[in-house]
Design a protein that fits this description.
alpha/beta, single chain, about 230 residues, three-stranded mixed β-sheet, 8 helices
Length: about 230
């Protein structure tokens, strides 16, 4: 993980930190794959590390996000500001930072085309039957994983609008309905969008998930796959 100190970040964070009765000792950008913020606290002194996905963001965006970080350090419930959210939800941000995210995602092939199956074909089937609409998957990227994983068959980064599907499903022995269901599940996260601080599997999410025509059959197959009985 690459970490570098940043004078601009320190200048923006200092008044926020002091406003909470704390002292900022260091402020750094952190080059991890996932967007994150972390800190080390010793008494009233803190070191703060923020994802380098914000390194070139406007000052007001960094300030807005920093308010959330420092408020959390001060034991306040995280409240994400409009300025920050609008910036990271913009197509400009997504397209720019997704390139970095994909480079850092070592387990992704970088392609929706597998040896046997194409994820885009799954998406098109879901669109054809009306389970997804184009806006659900707007500005998104689908990829197979390099390594097979039966415990985690898919993942979604709503911020980067990236979906990864385990290559264990890239097999003609796996029914199309099962692959499509996993793609549908992850696409529902895309449809929800980036919602930091909220539950990823909300009540509405579970209701929408069960709209899949053969939900029980797909879930049963996946349970068998995970336990090794398939």
């Amino acid at each position: 993980m690459m970490i570098r100190n940043d004078e601009r970040l320190f200048e923006l964070l200092s008044p926020i930190v002091s406003g909470h009765g704390l002292e900022l000792r260091a402020a750094s950008f952190c080059g991890a794959k996932e967007f994150q913020a972390s800190w080390k606290r010793s008494g009233d002194s803190i070191d703060i590390m923020i994802s380098d996905y914000l390194a070139d963001a406007p000052c007001d965006v960094i300030t807005d996000f920093s308010q959330t970080v420092v408020g959390t350090i001060a034991n306040r419930r995280p409240a994400y500001g409009k300025t920050y959210l609008e910036w990271v939800r913009s197509d400009e941000y997504i397209c720019s930072k997704r390139k970095i995210y994909l480079r850092r995602s070592r387990n992704l092939t970088g392609s929706p085309e597998g040896n046997e199956r194409d994820l885009i074909e799954s998406v098109e089937r879901l669109l054809d039957i009306g389970l997804l609409v184009p806006s659900d998957i707007d500005n998104s990227f689908f990829s197979w994983t390099k390594m097979p994983n039966v415990r985690k068959l898919g993942f979604c980064s709503p911020m980067m609008r990236v979906i990864g599907i385990s290559c264990v499903l890239d097999d003609v022995s796996v029914p199309e309905l099962v692959l499509d269901y996993v793609v549908y599940h992850e696409s529902l996260h895309l449809a929800q969008g980036y919602r930091p601080g909220q539950r990823p599997h909300s009540k509405k999410f579970r209701i929408d998930e069960r709209k899949y025509p053969r939900y029980e059959e797909a879930e049963s197959y996946l349970r068998s796959l995970r336990t090794g009985s398939k």
